[in-house]
Amino acid sequence: MRFKNNLFIASLVLTAPLAFAGPKVVMQTSMGEIKFELNDEKAPISTENFLNYVDKDHYEGLVFHRVIPGFMIQGGGMDAEMRERNTGSPIKNESMNGLSNVRGSIAMARTQAPDSATAQFYINTVDNLGLDGRTNRPGYAVFGKVIEGMEVVDKISAVQTGNVSYYRNVPREPITILSLERID
Question: Cα-flanking dihedrals φ and ψ of residue 35, to 5°?
Answer without folding.
Answer: -110, 140
